[in-house]
Amino acid sequence: MTKALNRTTPKQIEHWPKIGEMMEDKPELPYEFVKQVIIAKAEKEAGKQEEYTFGF
Questions:
Q1: Over the stretch 5-48, which tens digit does the pLDDT of each residue have?
Q2: In 10 A of CB 1, how many CB atoms?
Q3: Cβ–Cβ contacts within 10 Å for residue 17, how many?
Q4: What is the pLDDT of residue 30?
Q5: Which of 5, 15, 30, 56 is 20 to 30 A from residue 24's alpha carbon, by CA?
Q6: What are the backbone dihedrals phi and psi of residue 8, each rounded to the nearest 5 degrees, phi first?
Q7: Is-contact 3 47, C-beta < 8 A?
Q8: Where are the alpha helices (DSSP H) in 1-56?
């Protein structure tokens, strides 16, 4: 998550239009959800995935 939140200035400039586009496409989604999607994508790209098992 740290990598996703610690962006260089150019990456920060790229970040906000992505959020704006997502929010315009799906205005019913809360900002926190959109933010978590972006963090999850960054974690996936960094190879920090964990397998999720459905069920109990």
A1: 667 888 888 888 888 898 899 999 898 988 888 888 888 888 87
A2: 12
A3: 9
A4: 92
A5: 5
A6: -70, 165
A7: no
A8: 2-5, 9-25, 31-45
Which amino acid, residue 22?
M
Q: How many CB atoms lie within 10 A of CB 4?
A: 19
31 touches 23 (CB < 8 A): yes
Task: Indicate the DSSP class of residue 6.
Answer: S
Q: Which two tokens stand for residue 43?
A: 């974690």
Overall residue count recorded for the chain in this entry: 56
CA atoms of 33 and 35, how far apart (whole Å): 5
So where are the chain's domains?
Answer: 2-42
